[in-house]
Write a structure and sequence with these properties.
70 residues; alpha+beta; 2 helices
């Protein structure tokens, strides 16, 4: 049955992750009609130091701007 994998930065608190997993489960149930007990949601948290976009590392102070420059 459906497996949803989400990769995100670390730092979300347990309640935020829980809410995300519930919302994703509800969305898959609504769209696919799969039985709720057969929907699996996995959240993988990656340290910001191990994440880069556009050559800018997530821990860089100017990441938000630098990662979006062309």
């Amino acid at each position: 049955m459906p497996i949803v994998r989400v990769t995100t930065w670390d730092g979300q608190d347990e309640q935020q992750v829980r809410e995300l997993m519930i919302a994703l489960t509800d969305a898959v149930l609504h769209v696919t009609g799969a039985p709720r007990d057969k929907i699996t949601v996995l959240v993988e948290e990656v340290p910001r130091a191990c994440w880069a976009e556009g050559g800018s590392v997530g821990t860089d102070p100017d990441f938000a701007v630098a990662s979006r420059q062309h």
